[in-house]
């Protein structure tokens, strides 16, 4: 286990370095000059420009720039945002928390909705199957912004059950009340995807020979389902869950806009548009770290749940 | 009363929109403690027949005729009775233990699941007994193996675990569907010997499905030869080599692998094996039979008694098999 884990962690670290380097390179090679934004309306005197270029290391070669950035990261310094003229760490910290709330709540909806529909559809043929899959298909075909619009109108404006906009004051209870609607809007298509994958996986597992064995040994159907079908069928769904979780962080941008939530997604859009090097770098770093951490969690979960992995690695 | 009595068993499966018959009028009896070997090329309906005895037919199929166990019709059992029948009276061994055992649960869970869930044994009793049967099937260090996962055991070991699991509940009937086909050659004979020895010492009856005639004659009292969903010959095992009469049985004997393990290509039966699905007017084997005449292509032969055998062949008493 330990060796396996260390190898995964090593791979994760490598992924982080490679990705941030790539983003650095992309920004370095990108057309346009960020100096216009950096000046921020101040007169473009040569001294001023030179000072800014020095402050942001704009004249250094690529590798030096990367090294000085990553050294800063290790010292907790993510740089200064040119667009917001503020410290990047402070800019990101609260927004990251907001986005995480949104993603986590949405993930709960996706799991509950996707697994329930998928398991029901997979175990039953005919009516229940068609109904569950039709529900999943309809919900998944609603674009997030349309879904947001409908949810805000019905549940926030008409019924008044939830606040229409904003991200709450940072506490968990206010996060839940503020994030429920956006989380649902975000959950539609991913939930349907989980439902379809779960259904397919349940079907495959139901037809497997070890299920015949259990049946022919007289194990009651409900136990065959829980011990031998669902338990095994969830394994492939777990790795999908990991991928979806990371995807959610990125796809929050739309929903954050619709519900006027100050999260990471919206921030990334602004940062990229304004060529805000420091901010883009920092957000990428956070996304990649989330990606690596989630994948690591999936790997560990697999290790615990699927003994086949253990004997493969050993 | 026989242990198992099968009368005019038929099976129709749903293919696309239509229903098609894959098993035609199969009848035979099995007495307590007796063993029957069902042989035939793949697709001849051996597995479907075997599974039907455990009340396990494909979802989209219709069973006809009568299958009874100790006089009780299997299809008439209600859910509870069927579970009881499966958990304590009949046991099944599959071809590939690696796919027949849930890969994510421990060997110990697999072994004791039936007796704990269905027969109400305590976990510690089940564990003690499990260690006993594992020892009996020749698995060393049984305590450790109980905690192992299937992926940590070899195919031969897993098949032994499968056999052991069936010993715990003391069934009257063992259904074995090609139990050694998926194993490597060196473990095949030891696993087969184990099944035979345990069956005899416990007085269990067995239906043994195989396409290995040699093996079937070694461990069975009777041999039942199936082709395209029909019984073509039923005879005492010791008569198979010298007194079998059906051209298909004879062809199987010629086509069997030689003792050195290499397939004798020259003697392989010409043509493709037919399945019960295929519709023919006369004998289904006629197309591949060297002795076929007009009557074989127009009339379906029925099983008839010739000395100790039941044979479904129009020409069974005419052909003079020169046994060498
Ligand atoms: N679930 C099923 N649905 C439809 N046809 C089936 C099904 N299972 C088996 N068959 C058909 O029934 C025939 C006999 O199958 P089987 O009993 O598995 O043969 P064997 O075990 O002798 O190789 C084959 O032609 C096969 O195609
Ligand atoms: Mg078969």
Structure description:
- The complex is a heterodimer of chains A (314) and B (324).
- By secondary structure, chain A is an all-alpha fold.
- Helix content of chain A is 79%, strand content 1%.
- Chain A is built from 13 helices and two strands.
- In chain A, β1 and β2 form a beta hairpin.
- In chain A, α5 packs antiparallel against α10.
- The longest helix of chain A is centred in the C-terminal third of the chain and has 38 residues.
- Chain A is globular.
- Chain B is α/β, with parallel strands linked by helices.
- Chain B has one domain: Rossmann fold (3-Layer(aba) Sandwich), CATH 3.40.50.
- Chain B has an eight-stranded mixed beta sheet, sandwiched between helices. In chain B, strands 2-1-4-5 form a four-stranded antiparallel beta sheet, covered by helices on one side.
- In chain B, α4 runs parallel beside α7, α5 packs across α7 and α7 runs parallel beside α8.
- The radius of gyration of chain B is 21 Å and the shape is globular.
- At the A-B interface, α9, α10 and α13 of A face α2, β6 and α4 of B.
- The complex binds adenosine-5'-diphosphate (ADP) and magnesium ion (MG).
- Adenosine-5'-diphosphate binds next to α1 of chain B.
Concise summary:
The complex is a heterodimer of chains A (314) and B (324). By secondary structure, chain A is mainly alpha-helical. Helix content of chain A is 79%, strand content 1%.
Share of residues in helices of chain A: over 70%
Distance between the termini of chain B: 39 Å
- The CATH architecture name of chain B reads 3-Layer(aba) Sandwich
- The domain tally of chain B reads 1
Subcellular location (chain A): Cell membrane
Domain ABC transmembrane type-1 (chain A): 96-298
Transmembrane segments (chain A): 9-30, 100-123, 135-156, 176-195, 233-259, 279-305
Pfam families (chain A): BPD_transp_1 (PF00528), BPD_transp_1_N (PF19300)
